[in-house]
C-alpha cells in the first residue's frame, strides 16, 4: 500500500514533448484509471512510474520517496503488460515465481507462494505448461500472478485487456476489480476503452495531448466534464455538440436560423459557445411544438434495450438514445426536446467548461 | 494457413527443378561419386588407368601418424576458432543490443570481413602477425623470441585461428544481433520489473531465447572451420611448421596436387566428409535438445 505523488512531470524525446507537466495524487489503495486516446502520453506516464522510462522533468514519489533515480526493482511496483510479456521458455510456475527466484527466496517457500497465487487465479492445473499452450485469458492471469506474487506496493496495468475478446474482457475486468478489493493495493490502470475505465476506476484521470484534462470519479467525469474533449471522449454515443452565439433570450445556433432557450445564467451576450447535450438526455417529442428542435432522421440503430437515432440538424450530426417505443423511420421529421438543466457549455475557443450550473447540478458526494 | 504453389501437371514442376538438379549433379554428386571411386582405386599420377585396391587407401591413411596429427590439428582449430568467433560475436552483439544508436552502421561494417576472400584476409593477417615488423615485432622486442609462427607450431596455429575467427566474428555478430533484436522489448522490461539486473537478464531471458541462433551458428561455424580454412592455411603457413597447421582440408590438397597421390587425397576427402556428417548429427542429437524454440 502506497501513495503516488506526481509533480509537474514532463517527458520529451529528441524532437517532441509527449507529456506536459502532469500533476497527480494517487491515494493509498486507490484504483486509478488513466483514460485517453492513443498517443496521449498515458502509457508513457505509467512507464515513468514503473521506471522503464526516464523522467525528463518533475518528480514522481512513491510513499513520499522520490523515485526518479531508482531502478524499476527498487520502486516496489509490479506491472502487467499489454502483450502479457510472459517468458516463453519458462513454465507458468517459473513465470510466476521468477521474481522470487531473483530475490533469492528458497525453493520450498517459492513453491508454496506460487501455489497460493495459482489458487487465487485458478491456474493450478496448468502450472507446468509453457505460455504457448495457454489461451489468451489464461496468459492474462499468469501475467497478473507474476505481478501479485511479489506483493508489490503498486500495481501498474498497461492496457492489459486490449488483446482479449469482448466476453473475456468483461470477465477479466470484474476479476481485476475483485482482486483489487482483496489485495487493496494501489493500482494504476491505463486504457483507451472508456467502458473499462468507467467500470474499474475509483478515480478516473482523462488525458489528452500529454496533459491531464480532468481528474474525478467516473460519475463526476460523466456529469460534469471539465472540457469539451472530456465531454465528447467519455460516453457512448458521444455527447452532441452544437455551436452557437449567446443572445439576450437564448442561444442562436450556427449553421441555421434555429434558436434554443437556455437558462439565464452568466454567459455574456455575444459569446461564442459550444453547447453539449448527452444523447441520453434528449427526448423525442412530436415535431413543431414550442421549444422543440425539428430534425430529420438519418439512421436508426437498434440496440435491443433501446435505439440510437441519428438525426440531421442543419448539417450537424446529432444522436439521441431512446428507449421509448417510438420507431421513427429514416427521413421522418422528429422533435428534439432539450431541458436547459441537461446542457453543458464550453468555450468555443479554449474548450474549457463554462460553469453556468455550478449551483444547480448536484454532484454526488464521495 | 500455409500457402504453397501447386502445379496441375507434375511435369511442369520437374521442368522448374531441372536447372538446379543439373547443377547439383554436375558440381556435387558427380565429383563426390568420383571421389568415392578414386578412393577405392589407385590412380596413376599422370593419367592412364587405375587399379582397384578396395579399402587399402583408407587403411594406409588411418595407419599414418601424419594423418592423425592432421585430424587433431583440425579438431583443435575447429574447437578454438568456433568458440572464439562465437564468443566475441555474442559479447559484441549483446552490448550493441543495449545501446542501439548506429546499429545499421555496425551491421554494414561487421559483415565486411565475411565478404573478404579467405586468401586475401590471410595475406593481410600474415603482415599483421609477422614477427619482424608490425605489432607482434613490438611484443617480440619486449620478450625476445615470444612470437614466431614460422618456427613455433603453436604460434602458427594461433595465427590461423586469429584470421579465421576475425572473418567469422562479423558473420556471427549479424545473426546474434538479429536474434537479440527479435526478443520483444517488453520481456526485458518485465524481467527488470521482476527485479532482475542486466547480467541476470542476459542469462535468464536473452540467452535461452537466442539458443536457436546459437545452435545454427555452431553447426555452420564448425562445418566452415573444416572447409573454409584452406585459403588461410595456404597463404599463412602452408601447413607448417612441421605439419603443425596441416589441417585435413589442406592435407587433401597438398597430398593430392603436390604429392600427386590422387587416391589417398580422395580417401581423405571421404573421411573429412564423414567426420563433418558425424559432428553435425551429434550436434542435432545432443545439443539441439537444449534449444528453446518459440
Main attributes?
heterodimer, A: 366 residues, alpha+beta, Rossmann fold, five-stranded antiparallel sheet, elongated, B: 294 residues, mainly alpha, MetI-like fold, two-stranded antiparallel ribbon, 13 helices, 2% strand, globular, membrane (chain B)
List the helices and strands and how they pair.
The complex is a heterodimer of chains A (366) and B (294).
Chain A: E1 4-12, E2 17-26, E3 31-35, H1 42-50, E4 57-62, E5 65-66, E6 77-80, H2 92-102, H3 107-121, H4 136-148, E7 154-158, H5 166-183, E8 186-191, H6 194-200, E9 203-208, E10 211-216, H7 218-223, H8 228-233, E11 240-247, E12 250-253, E13 259-260, E14 272-277, E15 283-285, E16 293-302, E17 307-313, E18 316-322, E19 333-337, E20 344-347
Parallel strand pairs in A: 3-8, 3-9, 6-7, 7-8
Antiparallel strand pairs in A: 1-2, 1-4, 4-5, 9-10, 11-12, 11-14, 12-13, 14-20, 15-19, 16-17, 16-19, 17-18
Helix pairs in contact in A: 2-3, 2-4, 3-4
Chain B: H1 10-39, E1 41-43, E2 50-52, H2 56-62, H3 65-98, H4 103-115, H5 118-128, H6 135-142, H7 153-182, H8 185-193, H9 198-209, H10 211-227, H11 230-236, H12 248-258, H13 262-287
Antiparallel strand pairs in B: 1-2
Helix pairs in contact in B: 1-13, 2-13, 3-7, 3-10, 4-7, 5-7, 5-11, 7-10, 8-9, 10-13, 12-13
Structural summary, described in words:
The complex is a heterodimer of chains A (366) and B (294). Chain A has 366 residues and is an alpha+beta fold. Chain A has helices at 42-50, 92-102, 107-121, 136-148, 166-183, 194-200, 218-223, 228-233, and strands spanning 4-12, 17-26, 31-35, 57-62, 65-66, 77-80, 154-158, 186-191, 203-208, 211-216, 240-247, 250-253, 259-260, 272-277, 283-285, 293-302, 307-313, 316-322, 333-337, 344-347. In chain A, the strands form four sheets. A six-stranded mixed sheet of chain A has the order 6-7-8-3-9-10, with helices on both faces. In chain A, helix 2 (92-102) crosses helix 3 and helix 3 (107-121) crosses helix 4. Chain B has a single domain, classed as MetI-like fold. Chain B has 13 helices and two strands; from the N terminus they run H-E-E-H-H-H-H-H-H-H-H-H-H-H-H. In chain B, strand 1 and strand 2 (50-52) form a beta hairpin. Chain B is globular. Chain B starts with 9 loop residues before the first helix and ends in a 7-residue tail after the last helix. The mean pLDDT of chain B is 87. The chains are: A alpha+beta (366), B mainly alpha (294). The A-B interface holds A 50-52, 71-73, 77-79, 81-83, 85-89, 98-99, 102-103, 132, 146, 150 and B 184, 186-187, 189-197, 200, 204-205, 208-209, 292, 294.
Amino acid at each position: 500500500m502506497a501513495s503516488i505523488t506526481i509533480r509537474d512531470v514532463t517527458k520529451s524525446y529528441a524532437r517532441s514533448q509527449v507529456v506536459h507537466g502532469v500533476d497527480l495524487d494517487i491515494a493509498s489503495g486507490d484504483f486509478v484509471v488513466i483514460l485517453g486516446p492513443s498517443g496521449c502520453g498515458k502509457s508513457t506516464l505509467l512507464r515513468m512510474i514503473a521506471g522503464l522510462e526516464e523522467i525528463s522533468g518533475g518528480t514522481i514519489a512513491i510513499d513520499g520517496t522520490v523515485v526518479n533515480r531508482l531502478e524499476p526493482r527498487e520502486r516496489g511496483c509490479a506491472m502487467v503488460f499489454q502483450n502479457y510479456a510472459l517468458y516463453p521458455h519458462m513454465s507458468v510456475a517459473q513465470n510466476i515465481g521468477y521474481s522470487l527466484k531473483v530475490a533469492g527466496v528458497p525453493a520450498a517457500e517459492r513453491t508454496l507462494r506460487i501455489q497460493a497465487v495459482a489458487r487465487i487465479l485458478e491456474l493450478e492445473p496448468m502450472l507446468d505448461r509453457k505460455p504457448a499452450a495457454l489461451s489468451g485469458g489464461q496468459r492474462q492471469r499468469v501475467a497478473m500472478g507474476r505481478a501479485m506474487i511479489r506483493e508489490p506496493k503498486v500495481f501498474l496495468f498497461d492496457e492489459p485487456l486490449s488483446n482479449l475478446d469482448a466476453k473475456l474482457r468483461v470477465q477479466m475486468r470484474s476479476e481485476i476489480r475483485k482482486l483489487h478489493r482483496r489485495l487493496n493495493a494501489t493500482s494504476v490502470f491505463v486504457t483507451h476503452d472508456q467502458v473499462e475505465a468507467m467500470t474499474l476506476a475509483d478515480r478516473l484521470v482523462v488525458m489528452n495531448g500529454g496533459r491531464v484534462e480532468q481528474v474525478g470519479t467516473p460519475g463526476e467525469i460523466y456529469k460534469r466534464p471539465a472540457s469539451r474533449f472530456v465531454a465528447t471522449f467519455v460516453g457512448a454515443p458521444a455527447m452532441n455538440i452544437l455551436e452557437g452565439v449567446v443572445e439576450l433570450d437564448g442561444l442562436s445556433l450556427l449553421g441555421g436560423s434555429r434558436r434554443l432557450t437556455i437558462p439565464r445564467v452568466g454567459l455574456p451576450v455575444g459569446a461564442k459557445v459550444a453547447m453539449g447535450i448527452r444523447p441520453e438526455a434528449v427526448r423525442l417529442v412530436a415535431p413543431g411544438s414550442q421549444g422543440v428542435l425539428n430534425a430529420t432522421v438519418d439512421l436508426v440503430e437498434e440496440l435491443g434495450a433501446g435505439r440510437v437515432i441519428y438525426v440531421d440538424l442543419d448539417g450537424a450530426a446529432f444522436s439521441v438514445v431512446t428507449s421509448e417505443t417510438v420507431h421513427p423511420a429514416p427521413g421522418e421529421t422528429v422533435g428534439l426536446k432539450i431541458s436547459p438543466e441537461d446542457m453543458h457549455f464550453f468555450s468555443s475557443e479554449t474548450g474549457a467548461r463554462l460553469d453556468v450550473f455550478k449551483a444547480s447540478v448536484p454532484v454526488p458526494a464521495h | 494457413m500455409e500457402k504453397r504453389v501447386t502445379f496441375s501437371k507434375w511435369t511442369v514442376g520437374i521442368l522448374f527443378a531441372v536447372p538446379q538438379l543439373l547443377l547439383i549433379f554436375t558440381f556435387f554428386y558427380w565429383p563426390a561419386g568420383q571421389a568415392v571411386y578414386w578412393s577405392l582405386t589407385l590412380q596413376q599420377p599422370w593419367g592412364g588407368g587405375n587399379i582397384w585396391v578396395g579399402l587399402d587407401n583408407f587403411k594406409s591413411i588411418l595407419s599414418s601418424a601424419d594423418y592423425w596429427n592432421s585430424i587433431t590439428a583440425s579438431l583443435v582449430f575447429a574447437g578454438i576458432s568456433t568458440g572464439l568467433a562465437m564468443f566475441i560475436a555474442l559479447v559484441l552483439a549483446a552490448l550493441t543490443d543495449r545501446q542501439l544508436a548506429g546499429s545499421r552502421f555496425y551491421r554494414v561494417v561487421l559483415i565486411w570481413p565475411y565478404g573478404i576472400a579467405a586468401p586475401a584476409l590471410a595475406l593481410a593477417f600474415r603482415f599483421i602477425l609477422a614477427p619482424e615488423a608490425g605489432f607482434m615485432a613490438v611484443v617480440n622486442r619486449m620478450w625476445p623470441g615470444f612470437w614466431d609462427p614460422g618456427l613455433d607450431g603453436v604460434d602458427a596455429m594461433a595465427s590461423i585461428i586469429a584470421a579465421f575467427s576475425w572473418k567469422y566474428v562479423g558473420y556471427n555478430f549479424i545473426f546474434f544481433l538479429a536474434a537479440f533484436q527479435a526478443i520483444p522489448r517488453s520481456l526485458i522490461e518485465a524481467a527488470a520489473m521482476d527485479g532482475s539486473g542486466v547480467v541476470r537478464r542476459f542469462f535468464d531471458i536473452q540467452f535461452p531465447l537466442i539458443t536457436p541462433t546459437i545452435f545454427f551458428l555452431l553447426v555452420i561455424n564448425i562445418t566452415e572451420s573444416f572447409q573454409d580454412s584452406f585459403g588461410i592455411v595456404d597463404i599463412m603457413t602452408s601447413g607448417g611448421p612441421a605439419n603443425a597447421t596441416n589441417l585435413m582440408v589442406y592435407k587433401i590438397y597438398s597430398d593430392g596436387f603436390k604429392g600427386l597421390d590422387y587416391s589417398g587425397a580422395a580417401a581423405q576427402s571421404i573421411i573429412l566428409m564423414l567426420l563433418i556428417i558425424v559432428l553435425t548429427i551429434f550436434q542435432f542429437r545432443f545439443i539441439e535438445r537444449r534449444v528453446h524454440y518459440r
